[in-house]
Amino acid sequence: MIALVGPTGAGKSTIINLILRFYDVTAGAVRVDGTDVRQVTQASLRRQIGFVLQDNILFSGTVAENIAFGHPTASQNEIETAAQVANVHEFITTLPQGYATVLGGKGASLSQGQRQLISIARAVLIDPRILILDEATSSIDTQTEGLVQGAIAQLLKNRTSFVIAHRLSTVTQANQVLVIQQGHIVESGTHQQLIDKAGVYAKLYALQLGTVE
């Protein structure tokens, strides 16, 4: 788990865009398992990556179709299993037609947390090798925050992940934290290493939580 932290505009999303090949580097290289991502097609690269956004996108269609967006040939059983991992199955069963319930544009009838859980179920279903979470917990309602956190914990298991976060309390367990300012990585290390360093990260952490652990 690699956490990317820093102020708005520092370059966190730019790094993610380079990994996904929304645009390519002009110097150096982005490599996955030693292979330059420019040597493979965008489609084959992106099939390996799951992406959960802060403002996720749901479409007009059934709940099942929304979960299966990245894997349209998935069986009903596979869809329901993904929903169970994402802690959203029980909620879906309370909807008028369950998985066959038609959602309006952008899932307007659902809360932000419920939309996020469906987005997580979508990522679970495609079982990506690499997972990217872009502020995935910053806009959720308190009622579903615990469910979302639990679903993300399941999703992170046994895969490489990049997590963009402003709430530093969500990245304390990261294997490595990269602190980015003005397009440069200014610090890197584990949460505790950076706290002990008493540099930029430690100041940000103290500012957010009012204490340094």
Strand and helix layout:
Elements: E1 2-5, H1 12-20, E2 31-32, E3 35-36, H2 42-46, E4 49-52, E5 61-62, H3 63-67, H4 76-85, H5 89-93, E6 102-103, H6 112-126, E7 130-134, H7 142-156, E8 160-164, E9 176-181, E10 184-189, H8 191-197, H9 200-209
Parallel strand pairs: 1-8, 1-9, 4-7, 7-8
Antiparallel strand pairs: 2-3, 5-6, 9-10
Overview of this structure, please?
The chain contains 9 helices and 10 strands. α6 (112-126) packs parallel to α7 and α8 (191-197) packs across α9. Helix content is 38%, strand content 18%. The protein has helices spanning 12-20, 42-46, 63-67, 76-85, 89-93, 112-126, 142-156, 191-197, 200-209; strands at residues 2-5, 31-32, 35-36, 49-52, 61-62, 102-103, 130-134, 160-164, 176-181, 184-189. It has one domain (2-209): Rossmann fold (3-Layer(aba) Sandwich). It has 213 residues and is α/β, with parallel strands linked by helices. The radius of gyration is 18 Å and the shape is globular.
Q: Which key features would you list for this structure?
A:
two-stranded antiparallel sheet, single chain, globular, alpha/beta, 38% helix, 213 residues, Rossmann fold
- Which outline best applies? globular
CATH topology: Rossmann fold
Percentage of residues in strands: 15-25%
Say which CATH homologous superfamily is assigned. Answer: P-loop containing nucleotide triphosphate hydrolases
Biggest beta sheet summary: 6 strands, mixed
Class from secondary-structure proportions = alpha/beta
**Regarding CATH, which class?**
Alpha Beta
Number of domains: 1
The value of Rg in angstroms is: 18 Å
Kindly state the mean pLDDT as a whole number?
88
- The SSE string, one letter per element, is EHEEHEEHHHEHEHEEEHH
Helix content: 25-40%
| CATH structural architecture | 3-Layer(aba) Sandwich
Distance N to C terminus: 20 Å
Count of individual helical segments: 9
- Strand numbers in spatial order across the main sheet: 4-7-8-1-9-10
Which regions contain 5 or more consecutive residues with pLDDT less than 50?
Answer: none
**Topology, number of strands:** 10
